[in-house]
Amino acid sequence: PRGGANSLKMAAGLSITYTVYFTPEADTDYECDLVAYTDHEKFIVPVRATGSRGHLTLPDVVHFPNAPIKATSRTTVLLTNTGTKPCKFKASTVAPFNVQPAFGQILPQQNQQIAVEFTPTTLTRYESSV
């Protein structure tokens, strides 16, 4: 509300700085808007605080041994949710790579194995990054 107990009038051209301290009551997302009024304008400053999230860890690199053309080579990758909230994942690949399952959800401190397949179509070096 305008003109309340927490209002402050300033001369034109001066600036003022406020520090907002936030102490969450729960591990969740918070949002609010700080509203500042001048004689001619209203400013809305959005304040957002993000709670914990899932945190997915996986290997930096997945290596496959040399494989015959048109033969499928498979390796298993372990995904681990080291966060405190459930974590959803969705994997996408391009041929000749494939991932199963391509999506899912991992609970906190749990893990899931995914199969990564490689089926080369020509004799060449293959690399892919996601």
UniProtKB/TrEMBL annotation:
It holds the Pfam family HYDIN_VesB_CFA65-like_Ig. GO terms for biological process: axonemal central apparatus assembly; cilium movement. The keyword Glycosyltransferase does not apply. InterPro entries: Hydin-like, HYDIN_VesB_CFA65-like_Ig, Ig-like_fold, PapD-like_sf. Residues 56-128 form the HYDIN/VesB/CFA65-like Ig-like domain. GO terms for cellular component: axoneme. Its main location: other. It is found in: Cell projection, Cilium; Cytoplasm. The keyword Cytoplasm applies. Keywords: Cell projection, Cilium, Cytoplasm. Gene3D superfamilies: Immunoglobulins. It comes from the Eukaryota. This is HYDIN/VesB/CFA65-like Ig-like domain-containing protein. It comes from Neobodo designis.
